[in-house]
Automatic annotation (TrEMBL), chain A:
InterPro entries: DAD/Ost2. Pfam families: DAD (PF02109). It comes from Ananas comosus var. bracteatus (red pineapple). Pathway: Protein modification; protein glycosylation. It comes from the Eukaryota. GO terms for biological process: protein N-linked glycosylation. Keywords: Apoptosis, Endoplasmic reticulum, Membrane, Transmembrane, Transmembrane helix. Component of the oligosaccharyltransferase (OST) complex. Belongs to the DAD/OST2 family. Subunit of the oligosaccharyl transferase (OST) complex that catalyzes the initial transfer of a defined glycan (Glc(3)Man(9)GlcNAc(2) in eukaryotes) from the lipid carrier dolichol-pyrophosphate to an asparagine residue within an Asn-X-Ser/Thr consensus motif in nascent polypeptide chains, the first step in protein N-glycosylation. N-glycosylation occurs cotranslationally and the complex associates with the Sec61 complex at the channel-forming translocon complex that mediates protein translocation across the endoplasmic reticulum (ER). All subunits are required for a maximal enzyme activity. This is Dolichyl-diphosphooligosaccharide--protein glycosyltransferase subunit DAD1. It is a multi-pass membrane protein. GO terms for cellular component: oligosaccharyltransferase complex.
TrEMBL record, chain B:
The lineage of its organism: Eukaryota, Viridiplantae, Streptophyta, Embryophyta, Tracheophyta. It is found in: Endoplasmic reticulum membrane. Belongs to the SWP1 family. InterPro entries: Ribophorin_II_2nd, Ribophorin_II_3rd, Ribophorin_II_C, Ribophorin_II_N, Swp1. Residues 22-39 have a biased composition (Pro residues). Residues 293-363 form the Ribophorin II second domain. This is Dolichyl-diphosphooligosaccharide--protein glycosyltransferase subunit 2. Residues 20-46 are annotated as: Disordered. The chain crosses the membrane at residues 577-601, 613-633, 645-665.
Amino acid sequence: MPKATNDAQLLIQSLRKAYAATPTNLKIIDLYVVFAVATALIQLDHFHSTLSSPVYFSCVGTAVLAVCLRIQVNKENKEFKDLPPERAFTDFVLCNLVLHLVIMNFLG
Amino acid sequence: MARGADLWRFSLLSVRSFSIPSPQPPPPPFARSPTPTVPPRRSSSPDRWILREKRLTRHYGHFRYSELKRVGSSSPPAKDLFYALRITSILGCQIDASTYDEVASRLHAVLKDANSLLEFYYSIGGLLSIKDQGHDVILSDADGTFHAIKALSQSDGRWRLDTNSAESSTFAAGIALESLAGVVSLVGSEVDQSMIGVVKNDIVKLFGSIKSFDDGTLYFDEKHVDGSEYKGPLTTSASVVRGVSAFAAAASGNLNIPGDKILGLAKFFLSIGVPGTTKDFFNQIDSLVSIPLILSLPATVLSLTSKDQLKVEVTTVFGSAAPPLTVNLVQAYSSDSKDELQFDAENVVHYLDIAALKLDVGSIPSFLRYLFFVTLHDPDNVNIYATGGQNSIRAFITGLIKVDKAEIGILESDAGSVESLQKLDLSKDNSVSLSANHLQKLRLSFVLTTPLGHTFKPIRTNCLQVFLKLRHETKVEHIFILESSARQYKIVLDFLGLVGKFYYLSGKYELELTVGDAAMENSFIQALGHIELDLPEPPEKAARPPPLAADPLSKFGPKQEISHIFRAPEKRPPKELSLAFLGLTLLPFFGFLFGLTKLGVNLKSFPSSPVPAAFSILFHAGIAAVLLLYVLFWLKLDLFTTLKILGFLGPFLVFVGHRTLSYLASTSTKQKAA
């Protein structure tokens, strides 16, 4: 029905507008998450990697960590108001490093 | 100086003990090298001492002369005088008469006041040395001295060292005897002959205390082993031998010492090898008064069949030829005979035909002991060679044993009748064919006789082997031992009791007889034939016959060669495919970068002032380093190294990162505030 499609279009447009309003920081993080998941999916399909393979883990792991970072950095999030973003970023970096160490150990 | 003097003394005195017959080359002067091929001979008269190297005299004579001069001027103890005199006499130093007089008077003074054995010994020995040099010595109170020395003796033949000490020792006995001999040779026939007889008895008593090792060597040792005073068997025995031989040489008449004791002592001195110290070596060489003679049998197994002769060889311990002598066979186990063995000069062996002795295999012990008595032709040799009285040797006699009256047959269990016994000739294979069931018995008997017609009885009952072997077709074997009675060897196999042992196997059994002994020259294994055994059925719980031994070749022979199969390599996708997927994986990464640029990512908030800039750079560098470390870790490092390096990089990174981010935070708050 044209109304439904209209509604869908309107919905999408509004989402897009809202998204454009998000600060650049968060957009970068979102981008990173998207591509980490994309890598994971590609690996899953084409590399015969099972769900327990280390490569898959690394992709999903970084995605998860990036999501955490986004949550913590987002100024509109009430829970994390007093947390300086740099601290969150430090956490992100350190956790990534530890994750990669474990992945490397698992690989070799 | 004192220690060197000791070494000297013993070295030179051991030199004195060697005297060389002229054709042989002289051995070296100092007594360190072992010389078993030169038989040492001891004699006590000075004109037989031959010095080997004039170099020695020239070298040391001057030294010794000056020492004696020095000795003569002061008043040294008797011991030093004694040794100095001995050594000067060996070296042939020229000492003038006045020195000798001084020394002699000094020694006389010591002798007058002497109350210990060693003082007697040194003073009398010194006076004897002076006399031997050609200088006249007068001993005033010979009897008194003799009695004084004798007073220190004990009833068991040993001597006390002085009037104060309560312990007597064998070593002191040797010294005392030597001193007494010195008195007798200084004075000559003035000494009371009855005293000499008493001393001779003492010597015999002393020899009663001789000890022996298992192999027949005899030695003297002290009864009480005192810590510091203990001299050891070598020194003690040497002292006794020296004393006894000195006394025997000095006193007239004979000393009755059994020949085997002398032989035992000589064996002792020869068996200790080459001692480590000069003193011990001197003792050893000095005491080899007589050379032992050894009796040996070149062949200890004599065969009656080949009519062997009993041969005896007599040599010295060094292997050289013995002097002319006669060997008598005193006893050959049971038969006493006084047979004299004939001498074969070509082979240097004494022999005797044993057929004349009527020795038999087995009935009297084949391990016979022969007693020999050796008599030397030349009576002078008695002093030089020790024959050791009666020697006993063992020899073993073998011969052909005849097997007679062999019979084999089957008996009924109840009657044991003698019917149906077949005669066997055991000198060749037989093929007897018997058959029995489990109610019957098998009987085999025979008689063994020696060449002289007696029943053969081995001296050792476990030496003779008489076995009967039954072997089944399936190669299961049973061995039985025949019993021996007074007249014959017999076995009765009662099959009723043996059914279990035979594993209830019926069928054909081969019979084999084995007879053997060390004394039997014709031991044999003979096949007798076969027997058909009919045994009942085995019950359920009967033992199975043991499995056959595996063919040794199959068990121990070479095995099949196994070729190693490598694990099949895992299937990997072809290279091109992998590369394609690599590209595909990297696609999101490039997409990420593209998206970043589209979003307008910039490096605006990168700090511009130098110090924070440096920290930022370090921060990024630190992260890059950690990632590089991970790559290395994957490629070749192990976890521990990685963790170690991470332990360095981690805190560094934390520090740097903290600085950078705090700076960034402060700038952003400043921006917000502004």
